[in-house]
Amino acid sequence: MVNLASQNDCMSLPVTEEFYSVQGEGCNTGRAAYFIRLAGCDVRCPFCDSKATWNAAHSTPANVADIAARAAGTGCRNVVITGGEPLMHNLAPLCEALRRQGLSIWLETSGAHSLSGSFDWICVSPKTARPPLDEMLLNADELKVVISNANDLAFAEQCAAKTRQGCALMLQAEWDSRETAYQLMFNYVLEHPAWRISIQTHKILNIR
Ligand code: SF4
Description:
Elements lengths: L11 E11 L9 E7 L21 E4 H10 L4 E5 L9 H9 L3 E6 L11 E4 L9 H6 L2 E6 L2 H11 L7 E6 L4 H14 L3 E4 L2 H5 L3
Parallel strand pairs: 2-4, 4-5, 5-6, 6-7, 7-8, 8-9
Antiparallel strand pairs: 1-2, 1-3
């Protein structure tokens, strides 16, 4: 397994992009947040819309204190650490730097790697290409499963069975399959009301 955390001290991290926007999907939809998209991903989903993040060698390392200062400089309250697969890195130094700025920290992860850092909200979006660790499903505040066909609904239930009570259960259409997936999810949620539908509103609004 590639572990990028062992390749540096994680006081600097490979950043693909940073931007201040509005969370477009999941439980925190509509809330302003500063996005930190880290490079590196060994999950390699066929439908990935962030393939530019896969190879960390193509990004420039950024100091965690500088990242946190840029985030705080926007006036944001919340930060989303995403990727790529951010947990390929030790996130503790970045989280500590963000805490010193008084920011609330949200994580978006596939759950394929162990947790590092401390978070106010953990969204695990598991992928069949590299299934999540049981420990990460237990850590999840939100389980967000990408749906393109009925097999994905079965995978969603397998993952949900390993979450703790109170974890928000979200189904989200794979964008290119959304016409089929919306109908599947709609029918499924009516019959399984523990689940909710997550819409990728940032794609509809054409924002990042
Ligand atoms: Fe892309 Fe996310 Fe899958 Fe990695 S885990 S390949 S970034 S969709």
